[in-house]
Specification:
Blueprint: E1 3-5, E2 15-24, E3 28-30, E4 37-44, E5 47-51, E6 54-58, E7 62-66, E8 72-75, E9 82-89, H1 96-100, E10 105-109, H2 116-128, H3 134-148, H4 161-177, H5 184-191, H6 195-206, H7 210-228, H8 234-240, H9 246-257, H10 261-268
Antiparallel strand pairs: 1-2, 2-9, 3-8, 4-7, 4-9, 5-6, 5-8, 7-10
Helix pairs in contact: 4-5, 4-6, 7-10
């Protein structure tokens, strides 16, 4: 039952704040709701969601998109209820209602033209195999939401030569070597450009500098280790994400997430 965080930069139009599947779902009470648009789907079993005093059944293959800060709870009367979920963020997060409508919650089932479950499984597989393309992910998030409440489609700038030639190879280098002592200068040398020019390209396409993308990627991997590998100590996680000074890692983690690593771990256990 894996859970992964921030699959790409929040500066992109849309991205994933968290995603997971094969989750043996426990009872949840959120009297203040959740801060992001939240999709919950039943993989197997049967769940019950309570929103605005109304009870909604979620059989296998059915999900519900819940708007931010809408109080809700969910539970199951069966012995086992297995779920998948995804929460969305990004620069256009406040505009998601323009895509899906202004309803407080929207129940939807997988259909012949689109499977929400397959989308989640495929996205997790790409992430686990370090094959996430941030710009494509932003488009894919739009497609997901569009299938909750279809509107017109559009495409971004995936095929632009500058992105393909300079940005995409560096993204792959970061995702492969984030645990090593890599620098922006090292990344720029790989691309045969100056660090300043590379950061301008990252800012143009991803909304953040090269160094911030590297830091954000290290932090999201740290989140995954904190939640998925509870046996690892903070110092071990610090080393695994490229920080040999644990105090610096803790300070950086808190400055970005608002929590210390231990506080973040406790949120999920």
């Amino acid at each position: 039952m894996p859970i992964y965080f921030e699959l790409s930069s929040r500066e992109l139009p849309l991205t994933i704040d968290s995603i997971g599947n094969q989750w043996y779902q426990e009872n949840i009470e959120r009297p203040k709701g959740f801060p992001h648009y939240h999709w919950l789907q039943t993989e197997s079993g049967l769940g019950e969601v309570v929103i605005d005093g109304k009870q909604l059944s979620l059989p296998e293959g059915t999900g519900v998109l819940i708007a931010p800060f809408v109080p809700h709870s969910y539970y199951s009367n069966q012995e086992e209820w297995r779920t998948s979920f995804v929460t969305f963020s990004g620069a256009l997060e406040t505009d998601i209602s323009k895509i899906v409508g202004h309803e407080r919650y929207i129940p939807v089932a997988d259909h012949e033209g689109f499977s929400f479950q397959n989308w989640i499984n495929h996205t997790i597989s790409l992430h686990e195999n370090q094959q996430i393309n941030p710009v494509q992910l932003s488009i894919d998030c739009y497609v997901f939401l569009m299938n909750v409440n279809p509107v017109q489609d559009y495409r971004g700038f995936l095929e632009q030569p500058l992105y393909q030639r300079y940005v995409l190879p560096i993204i792959k280098e970061i995702e492969t070597k984030y645990s090593e002592d890599i620098t922006v200068q090292y990344l720029a040398d790989i691309a045969y450009v100056s660090p300043q020019y590379l950061s301008r390209l990252f800012k143009r396409f991803l909304g953040c500098s090269t160094s911030m993308y590297l830091t954000n990627y290290r932090m999201l991997k740290a989140k995954e280790f904190l939640v998925n590998r509870p046996e690892l100590e903070i110092q071990q996680i610090s080393f695994r994400v490229g920080y040999h000074d644990t105090s610096h890692f803790i300070a950086m983690f808190k400055s970005i997430t608002g929590y210390t690593p231990l506080e973040f771990r406790h949120l999920h256990y």
